[in-house]
Amino acid sequence: MSNEQLLSKVLEQYVNFVNSAYSDGRFYLHFAWEQDYFNNQSAKLFSNIADTKVLVVIGYSFPFFNREIDREIFRRMEKLERIYIPRS
Predict the structure, then answer these.
(1) Element (H, E) at 82
(2) Which residue range is the domain that position 60 belongs to?
(3) What is the model's pLDDT at position 43?
(4) Which residue among 38, 51, 67, 78 is buried most deeply as judged by most CB within 10 Å?
């Protein structure tokens, strides 16, 4: 599978996920600075990302104020092999 095909598949799944999130009345996108949410959900997040092998970063600039949380997320992806950051 080419990089373009992989990216297309990931985007398609993301769009489907967002559409389903709106249809059931819940919204699943949260931000790291929402400390209450992050503190309550971090164990679940870390469990879900532990087996990640490929990460696709779209539209994220890795801001300084979020660096500590970003590092922790990367640290918890113990099987991470590749990171794709599409050029803009």
Answers:
(1) strand 82-84
(2) 3-84
(3) 82
(4) 38
Q: At what angle do helices 67-76 and 35-49 cross, to 10 degrees?
A: 20
pLDDT digit string (tens) for 28-48?
666 666 667 667 777 888 889
Q: How many domains does the chain have?
A: 1
pLDDT tens digit sequence for 4-33: 888 888 888 877 777 776 666 666 666 666
What predicted TM-score, i.e. pTM, was given to this entire model?
0.58
- CA–CA distance from 50 to each of 19, 24, 56, 80 (Å)? 26, 27, 15, 9
Instruction: Give the Cα separation of 15 and 21 in Å (integer).
Output: 10
Which residue stretches of the chain are H helix?
3-23, 35-49, 67-76
- Are 53 and 82 within 8 A, CB to CB? yes
Amino acid at 30: H
Only one residue has tokens 């590749």, namely: 82
65 and 35 Cβ atoms separated by less than 8 Å: no
